[in-house]
UniProtKB/TrEMBL annotation:
All residue ranges annotated as the Acyl-CoA dehydrogenase/oxidase C-terminal domain in the record: 231-379
Species: Shimia sagamensis
Official protein name in the record: Acyl-CoA dehydrogenase
Keyword Flavoprotein among UniProt keywords: yes
Residue stretches making up the Acyl-CoA dehydrogenase/oxidase N-terminal domain: 9-118
Record flagged with keyword rRNA-binding: no
Keywords of the record: FAD, Flavoprotein, Oxidoreductase
Amino acid sequence: MPNHMWMNDDHIAFADTVKRFFDEEVTPNKDTWTEAGVIPKSLWKKAGELGILGATFPEEHGGLGLSRHFDAVTFLEQTKAGDSGWGVSVHNIAAHYITAFGTDEQKARWLPGLASGDKVAAIAMTEPGTGSDLQAVKTTAIRDGNEYLINGSKTFITNGGSADLIVLVAKTDPSAKGRGVSLIVVETENLEGFAVGRCLKKMGMKRNDTAEMSFTDVRVPLTNLIGTEEGQGFIQLMKQLPWERLILGYMALGASQCALEHTLAYVKERKAFGKRVMDFQNTRFKLAEAATKIELLASFCDTCLTELEAGQLTAEKAAMVKWWGTQTQCEIVDECLQLHGGYGYMSEYPISELYTDARVQKIYGGTNEIMKEVIARSLDID
Ligand SMILES: Cc1cc2nc3c(=O)[nH]c(=O)nc-3n(C[C@H](O)[C@H](O)[C@H](O)COP(=O)(O)OP(=O)(O)OC[C@H]3O[C@@H](n4cnc5c(N)ncnc54)[C@H](O)[C@@H]3O)c2cc1C
């Protein structure tokens, strides 16, 4: 399995803690939470106590002040443990809008609760009428005295049913396109006019309470605008999306490793025509291909992480790691499932969940077609 050259003793110790957390707190409860369609709030608190949620938040706001390498460790360990239903990545992404663009007062107000797990975060961009074309969002946040009056609806929101804090993408100037977009924090507790609709039934990620939500004359203070200037939301999104896309690259990597490990164990046990499935040349070649792709993806993710930390990760390279990483993940889990034969199709085998969970990776975080548009645009310059 890949050797991440940046991993020092601190990263290894952190990885041990996170791995133990998944082994002890998540894995034994997977079936119960899959049935419930939601992760209990108590898990967030436990993760907060271990420093998993706030690893990269500033120390003065309840975090550990560490580099993004530590978050990468978390997303790797989560997916290596075969989970992608717990929306910790979305919580992290939402919080990083506050760390990156929030005022000191906003950071002090919101980050400690997000680090401790007392508050769960979501990010609400997608609407029933628009997903890929973010500039076309219809949700409005109109100034009214010292408040914003919010109207609109969102869909497919990860952690939507349990979110205490939502980073909302809304138009503060509905007459403008991208320049009219702002990011506004909505705190959901006892919030009049805010409603969570159904938790959506999905083919994968069944432990996540992905939900619809509506805003009807919801009022929040003007001070909930992230940053100090309206109309900055689209730029803020563009600046943070490389991190979101790299997270999906690391999650693709961990899930691919998990699929390979389960498959290796299976094909060494299973017999056909008097020999182990592992002994067929086709099996050996498929596994060799998967192991090679995993090494390539790890190197690519690590390069992107180095560039991100140096402030040099471009939108197009982040798009490359997202589309290629998730495409590669889907190829690997498909081949791994095939090597399980009919058992791979049965829910009791982990490869089955890895397969259904993988599919959405090519869709959310910007579809892979949009990623290729971003890359092609960067090539189409004279
Ligand atoms: C499980 C799950 C969790 C999600 N979590 C969140 C969340 O937490 N927050 C959030 O805001 N959203 C979330 N989403 C929404 C997700 O980001 C969107 O589904 C995604 O951005 C695509 O938008 P859409 O579904 O409206 O598809 P559309 O934009 O309608 O796209 C339909 C198809 O057209 C293609 N297409 C669109 N435009 C172009 C173009 N210019 N060129 C070529 N092809 C194009 C797309 O690639 C796609 O194949 C989630 C979705 C799922 C399924």
